[in-house]
Structures are given as structure tokens and as C-alpha cells.
Amino acid sequence: MAQDTIFTRDRLINLAIIITAIWFTWFAQNFFDEYTVRIINNVAIFIILAVSYNLINGVTGQFSLEPNGFVAIGAYVTAILLVDAEAMEYQYYIEDASPWVLALQANFFWALILSGTISALLALSLSFPVFRVRGDYLAIVTLGFGFIIRILAINSPSITNGSLGINDIPEFSNLYWTGGIAIFTVIAILNIIYSKFGRAMKAVRDDEDAATAMGINTFKIKTLAFTTSAFFEGVGGGLLAALLTSISPDLFTFFLTFQLLIIIVLGGLGSTTGAILGTIFVMAGLEWMRFLDEPMDFMGIQTDAMPGMRMVVFSLILIIVMLFAREGLMGKKELKDLFKKKKANK
Asked: Can you tell me where the transmembrane regions are (predicted)?
């Protein structure tokens, strides 16, 4: 009876959170100013990327540095499918666009699905060589993949327009798309984590050799986490392309992966709630602190503009947080675990 009560309570909490998130998405899209909506759009996309990246890096414990590669694939696939042939012919300066690139067209929904699917299929093919190594070697291999994708984008001008990138991408990414897909991504990832596959992923993270001894097919579990993560990263890349309306290889450097790594470590490796909080803290916080770069009047004292000051302050805040919260803001806990703790204390 007690377990049934806890299960019902958890479902009600989850339902309340989902309804609140949907309501906030609708309210923000209709009542917030354009600048604020733009920031929330960016936060929603990075929630998709952070939550999916956390599945392979935090939940499964595989130190992978590949997100920029899969995000780039998703962004380019979406851009190619959305930009019409006439606009492509006009902007491809280095080399004429390939005929098959000009022939490809799809609506936004199918462009996102294809972006995620192609990223997932590539991750599936990569899993065979990638998961022959562990630890730091795995990080090096996946890091190299990100560099390869970027170099291919630069050196394939008939497909990607080379270093000039693709412009005039239709701006489809409003909050209904980004917020809706972010909510779906969080629900899907949490369902995986609380399934038998999620428990196997945590076993691989805690002790891969012991998991193998217990009969868990660790390669299958790591591949599942890797391909799932890649799918949502590809979708996130497509949303990013349709938000920015212009992409180039410079957008998908290792800095993107490093940014996501900061987010999931700050929030707590293995915590989906932590990944969400980390995204809000990093992406929205950096925008809010832009006033630090501008001239200020502090208690009657005028200060000149100090470009980069917000990054200094943000770095100090990160250091302080990591000193006092060694496992991140949430550790490995989820939101429902906080409610359980409160009830136990009572």
C-alpha cells in the first residue's frame, strides 16, 4: 500500500511538472518580448543537448566528447532540407551545389526526424570501433570524431558550402517547437533511465567489469545510450539551425562540447534535473550578466565598459559552486528524490 501511494504521488508530481512546463511554454511564446523568447528558445535547445549528452556521459559513465559532431550533422541536414534550391544556388560561391543537395526538400518535422536518424545511424556505426576502448582513450577517439565532422564540413563545399556555411534557413524554431521537443526529450530520457536499460547503464557506470560478470551486455547498453544521445543531439542541431537561420563550421567547434560538459558537471553527472538546472544557470545566467560588460554607475562611481567581465564573474561563481558542491547542484538526485528526502525528515 505504501509503495502504491509513493508511486501515485510521483506520477502526480511528474504530471504537475509537465503541465507547468507546457503552460510556461505557451505563456512565454505569447506574452514575453522577442529578446526573452530568444533566450528561452536557446535554453530549451541546450536542455535537449545537455539531457541527451548526460545519458551517455553521466548515466552510462562513458567519457565521450562527441556532441559538437552530431549537433553539426543535425544542423546541416536540417539546413539542406529546408533551404530551397534557388536560395542554395545563389549562396554557394566556392563550388556549385551538388544536384542531389538541390533536390532534397522536406518540411520542418521530417527534417528534424531525418537529422536525428542520420546522427543515430552514424553513432551506431561508430560504436563498434569507439567502444573497443575506455576512459581517456574513449574521450580522445570521440574528440577526434568532432574534429573530423567539422573538417568535412569545411572541405565539402558542394554539400555544405564550405567555410561560408548555409544562410537563409527558415526560422521555424519558436517555443512551441523547442519547448515541446525539450519536454518530450526529458520525458523520453527519464523513461529510459528508470527502465531496465537505465539500470543497466548505471551498472556499467559504477563498475563495467562487475556488470559484465552479472550477464549485462555492456556493448549493447553503451551503444543504446550512444545512439539515443546522438539522435536527440541531431534533433537539437536541427532546431539550432532553424533558430539561428545561418550556420557555419565555426559554430561547431570543441567549445560547444566543452559548454555542454560544464553544464552537466555543474548540474550533477547522472542527474537529468541537474542537467536542466545547469543549462538554465549557464545559458540564461550568462545572458543576464551582460550588464557587467557595459558602463555602470556604482554608488555614484562611473565605470568604463569592461568587455569580458561577465566571464570573469561567471568563472568565479563556477569555482565557488564546485568547491561547495563537489558532485554538482543535484549530484545524482532527481527532483522526486528531494520530495522523498523531505518526507523522510518529517
From this structure: 12-29, 35-56, 68-88, 108-130, 137-155, 175-194, 224-247, 253-286, 307-325
Q: Over the stretch 106-125, which tens digit does the pLDDT of each residue have? A: 899 999 999 999 999 999 99
Q: If you ran DSSP here, which 8-state letter would residue 293 be given?
A: G
For 148-198, give the DSSP string: HHHHHHHT-HHHH-GGG-B--------HHHHHHHHHHHHHHHHHHHTSHHH
Grid coordinates standing for 15? 504530471
4 has a pLDDT exceeding 60: no
Arithmetic mean of pLDDT, 331-337: 75
- Asked if the structure places residue 2 within a domain, the reply is no
More confident of the two residues 39 and 93: 39
Residue 337: inside a domain: yes
Instruction: Report if residue 331 sits inside a domain.
Output: yes
Q: Among 69-78, 162-171, 224-233, where is mean pLDDT lowest?
A: 162-171
Which of 218, 264, 344 lies closest to 47 in space, CA to CA? Answer: 264
Length of the chain: 346
Cell of 10: 510521483
Q: Is residue 5 part of a domain?
A: no
**Cβ-count burial 268-279 (b if 16+ within 10 Å, e if not):** bbbbbbbbbbbb
Average pLDDT of span 249-263: 91
φ, ψ of residue 302 to 5 degrees: the values are -85, 130
Grid look-up 565555426 returns: 250
Question: Which domain range does residue 75 map to?
Answer: 10-292+302-345
Contacts of 191 (CB under 8 A, 6+ apart): none
What average pLDDT score do residues 230-242 get?
A: 96
DSSP-derived 3-state class of residue 297: strand
Of 96-105, 170-179, 293-302, the range with the highest mean pLDDT is 170-179
SS3 298: strand
Report the chain's C-alpha Rg in angstroms: 21
* pTM of the complete model: 0.91
User: Structurally, how many domains does the chain consist of?
Assistant: 1
